[in-house]
Amino acid sequence: LPLLFEAPTGEVFVIPSLPSELDGLATKVRVPDSAYDAVRALLTDVEKQQLSAFWIRPPQESKSLYGVQDEDVRPGSLIYALYEGAWVEAKVEFVDKLAGKALIEWAYDKSQSDLDLKDLRPKMDKEALEKRQRSRAIGAAWTLILVGPVRARKALALKALASCEEKWPGLWSTELLEAVEELRGTSEEDAAVNADARYIVASTEAKTGSEPTFQRLTRKDGPGTLKRIASAANCIMKLFGTSGFLVLGTHEERARALEYLAWRCEEPPAGGSSGSTDSGGASVPQSVDYVDADGDRISFRCRVENKETGEGPALDMFLNGEPRIRDILTLRPEGADGPAARTLQLSGTSCTAGSKILCTEVPEHVENQGAPERILELFRSCSVGALWARRRRRGDVSAVASTCGRNAWLEGKALWDIEVESNTIILLGGLADKPRISRGGAEGNKGVGKGGKDAESNGGGKGEGKGADKAEGNGENEDSLKRSKWHPKVVAEVHICGHDAVSRARAAEKVKALIAAVSEEAEAEDEDEPEAKKQKIGEVEVEVDKPVDARAELRKLGFWPKDYPAWREVQDIVWKHHQNLAQGWLRVWARSKDREYYVRFPQFRSTFDINEAL
Q: Model-level pTM?
């Protein structure tokens, strides 16, 4: 290689081309001029990685970003032409390519002029212009050559691509598959360590039962989440804007990383997997039945996990008492969204000669109110339970026994520290679904008697009158409603995932210590609604609602509010009937001191003295 150097420029070695004999040992990355310095800064310690870095200069006849191509300048084409330093709309009348000129007609007065082709610019929308600029930048780019061990050179090449994206947003995020090709390589050694691309799907495009959307990566902690997933899976992952990410490693490492990320992204915002009996959360009614418009009896039934075979849990559909679809894989509403969606499309293993994909419509009768939502909830519960059962049997997952109540009180910061130190990811079972609990708490409290309490517990119905009983419908009794209530003493698990068994064992010991440190009050039985106390005002006794126990209400939530806005949402739940605070103040619970304190919003001034907040 030294014989091929044109000349070293400082610490940069420039070569005219890469010998074909070295193709199998090298990775090439195109670097636009705007990102050259940033990428060069990554090469300061390549020798420590047993790598050699070289550059190939950009093509000599590169065109400017706004230069025109043959298809841009043709008779009749609309363009921008340079007139006294400004770009003005015009139309091409005639092109003389040999002379490098064009006859154009100005749009504002229809006069004509002969201009050099370099003074013309194609007229296109913003998206097309950005695409053209990117194409020109890639065509006029430097080429970085990395020679050495395949894993080290591809890892550095991926960092170079990410650095280019930072300097030129959209350079690679708009063409992730092209970025993958930059890392592909041609040798058998290259095939062993390769890259995959995944796109982040907009929430509006997501569908029930579809692949993970990875929307969590668009949050502020997205890059950190990706970094911890990569460490746990022993691969390299880089985020490219809000479009997607690349994962680099062996086939096994890439598959493991994508599974870990899907598990983490499927967690509710509070930080844990939604509950099922198998993951350690609340169970839901095990079947939903109704009669369709043709008079057929339709039943969706949940099969519990078979501990001996490891099969299940799973959801099956029965038609007139006979199995029709077994092991339902997808279940989604068709047409309207929300409560108006009464037609469900499902697919799975057909138990007859009929199709494995079919639709069923729940008739709009009073006894079927809420049935579509309960079917979807049953499917979600079975799917989550099946996931936890499968994950429990994996060789790269360690399970730690716990309870719902203790898991709900584990601090996210402490778990984060364990993840970082041990290169693992930690998944909590038995945490209630935050949005469902919030709706039940905020609206269900308006219910009357047990109807209002059940609405609060289940997050179902609108909590009006005895709305919970009506919402569950379908003739289900109070016992089945109680089964869907999250309970702090139900057995739950914590799953610790990572490629290294020693690191998992170390993390498991620390998680056990955290669980043991949680107060036994976290598993206290749910108390009945506090009775109203009587207060004498003058000569008249009036009933005054007793303030709820904030600590007990926090246990009922099943999640820990992550920030001040989240605390604002639960003020009327956790501190129901407590003394009103002055405008702008809210209550927050300090876990370290096990007491409440008060925050002035939006200044975020805090105090433990309630008198300042009154």
A: 0.69
